[in-house]
Amino acid sequence: MPDVSDFSDDIDTVSRIEAVPSILSMVKQATGMRFAAIARVTESRWVACAVDDDIEFGLAPGGELPVETTLCHEIRQHLTPVVFTHASEHPVYSRHHTPLTYQLESYVSLPIITAKGDFFGTLCAIDTVPAHFDEAVVLETLKLYAQLIAMNLDLQNDLRVSNQALADANEIAHFRDQFVAVLGHDLRSPLTAVRLSADLLASRMTNERDLLLTQAIQQSSVRMGTLIENVLDFARGKLGGGITVEPRWVEDLMSPLRGVIDEVCSAHPQASVVETLSLPGDHECSRAYCDPVRVCQLLSNLLENAITHGREGAPVELQILVARDELAISVINQGSPIPPELIPMLFQPFSRSQGKQRGEGLGLGLYIASEICSGHGGTLEVVSTELSGTRFTALIPCGGTAQPGN
């Protein structure tokens, strides 16, 4: 069966080996010949991959010779070098068809064998006039060059495999993120229907037991909504280069924040939240330059996290202050302090708290809260001690001069 392989990849691989031009030049110097080449040789093809030609032999990279007319065909079969310095006086090669066909007087060729033992081709040199060199010395020198070429071929192949594996992994990650985004989007519609239905049922319930069940549905749907939004934001951030923040002037920031507090407290009726807010009725104190939707999401995530991981029965403290062009949101809960070595991991996606704590989640809430702060040009910090508990503090510039981090 004829070999119909495309050797463009082999030619390209050889061309990327920076040492090849120097190797071919040194082969010419070592032998005194005026043509040197690296050839890809198969059972039925001889293809030049790199050429240094001072005799106008007529070959360039990609050029071919009928493989049966070359000595490389024999080298491929026996994997042994061939060398002669004066063909017309040689007892064997004076009658051999290759030097007669191409009118060669001097010739040397060595096999190039990869680390896996595969025959790639040959490193060869030719000339139409006799050459004068010590055959044993030249063969040893060219053997080292052939090994150097083989090593570089292996390195190039390994690099190509690694790059392909990386490209495949990136593509898989991209499709995974797209899947998560689509899944999160498609989950929101039925969840909205569940929440509206639960609200309607709750408004009509008179039986205390049925009302408790309906409230449980409401609480679970709120929790699911938070999780879905976090997953969506994470997927959008991965696909689009970060969580988007769109600040604008908000005349009354306290009203939507108040709504978030009420919703979270409604979803966790067993929790006690002690609030300290900056004059909710004061219009001037409520005015801020920020993304109100994201700030509400930030508050929800911090408050949910504090309730989930705080000591059962202990109150959660919430402090919100808008002053000096800065919005400060602090959430404090009681419980076992966070080990110092775990604090750097808190704002990484999919990091979960360690130890026996209640209500483990996806680990996206604090990551997204941190990204929202960064998008506003602000910060999110945590301090955790046995005495004072764990305090998360978000500081967001809100005077209209903040430089977004995203």
UniProtKB/TrEMBL annotation:
CDD domains: HATPase (cd00075), HisKA (cd00082). Its EC number is 2.7.13.3. GO terms for molecular function: phosphorelay sensor kinase activity. It catalyses: ATP + protein L-histidine = ADP + protein N-phospho-L-histidine. Keywords: Kinase, Phosphoprotein, Transferase, Two-component regulatory system. Residues 182-400 form the Histidine kinase domain. InterPro entries: GAF, GAF-like_dom_sf, HATPase_C_sf, HATPase_dom, His_kinase_dom, HisK_dim/P_dom, HisK_dim/P_sf, Sensor_HK_Regulatory. It is an enzyme of class 2 (transferase). Pfam families: GAF (PF01590), HATPase_c (PF02518), HisKA (PF00512). Gene3D superfamilies: 1.10.287.130, 3.30.450.40, Histidine kinase-like ATPase, C-terminal domain (3.30.565.10). This is histidine kinase. The lineage of its organism: Bacteria, Pseudomonadati, Pseudomonadota, Gammaproteobacteria, Pseudomonadales.
